[in-house]
């Protein structure tokens, strides 16, 4: 197509290969679309948003060029190597075929109805939690209760991934226990891990706040050990292989429309963690695979987030209408978690209360807290929780990287394997 065609007046030059408003620069994304026979996103929502937003004009020009290939994970690493107990249980029922074709798990979906299978599944999870508890004690010196719910958020530290939303709920839960130490809450161990870009100031402020909250909460004997908070440093694949099999709850709480796909959500669900999350990235497809009753979905949708951005956002109004949230914000702002530096939490508070905070942390807080209450209620029923956890594992076959690579080979690369 000639250059003139790429400067159609209807698109205002948006499909031009050359940026001319700020000096003549090559638009690499546009060039990539024009030079490719296929363009794909890595989760269904991601693919649709690309067509609706940044590549809308190209999608109109080349409607058959855009497609989707949802991400997958390496089964041999994230199940066979990471979780030998669960792997052995699956092999006992299926043989070794599942290692090269995870969709073989479909053949044993009915196993969740077998009380003996659920008991063994639960015992394996307990063993994995004991192993992670040893790692936590060795690395950060915190002694955690393996009978508590292991609530895990492990991913890059970024505002859109919303570690702050998780932390706000942790503080709210802590406040409830401070006010009533006899409150009958499910014991929890909340585990954070992840790295941040070296120059990302607010991400470092978030990490600092997590550690400050952990120090205060873990040292508070009045709450009777019902809440522990852990930030595991030096997050890498080896540590992840210890965390994923031990998790009970998988935090996938990014602002809807912001996460391209996610693969941590797949690794955790495959290892028998229930997901609490927004309708973002591959969470949508995980919900379809495991069943809406086996996942905790909350919060604004991508469409609602876009509408909020257009209409305006007032975090202070949300705080004023939610006394628990207001108390949580005040506790951070007062320096309660950093007595040696009373202003340490100020950057986080200022960001949360700013009308330019584009990740809607406070807007989703009430829905998130309600979803966490539902988590507590289910965890009290040990067998019901195990049934749902096992259901997650046995319905994750489609999220294998083997399937992803096969789709790329067939529909993107258009190649065949050499046998």
Kindly describe this structure:
This protein has helices at 28-34, 44-52, 56-61, 75-81, 84-94, 115-140, 163-179, 201-219, 237-243, 264-270, 283-290, 302-311, 315-320, 323-333, 346-353, 365-379, 382-394, 401-413, and strands at residues 18-19, 25-26, 39-41, 66-68, 149-154, 188-193, 227-232, 249-252, 274-277, 296-297. The protein has 419 residues and is α/β, with parallel strands linked by helices. Strands 7-6-5-8-9-10 form a six-stranded parallel beta sheet, sandwiched between helices. Helix 11 links the parallel strand 9 (274-277) and strand 10.
In short:
With 419 residues, this protein is α/β, with parallel strands linked by helices. The chain has two domains: 3-68, no CATH class; 75-403, Glycogen Phosphorylase B (Rossmann fold, 3-Layer(aba) Sandwich). The protein is 48% helix and 9% strand.
| C-alpha Rg (nearest Å) | 23 Å
Do you know the CATH architecture of the largest domain? Answer: 3-Layer(aba) Sandwich
Low-confidence stretches: 1-10
Distance between the amino and carboxyl termini: 39 Å
Assign an overall shape: globular
Query: Mind describing the biggest β-sheet?
Result: 6 strands, parallel
Summed over residues and divided by their number, the pLDDT gives a mean of 94
CATH class of the largest domain: Alpha Beta
The amount of helix comes to: 40-55%
Number of domains: 2
Order of strands across the main sheet: 7-6-5-8-9-10
Q: How many helices in DSSP terms? A: 18
Beta-strand portion reads 5-15%
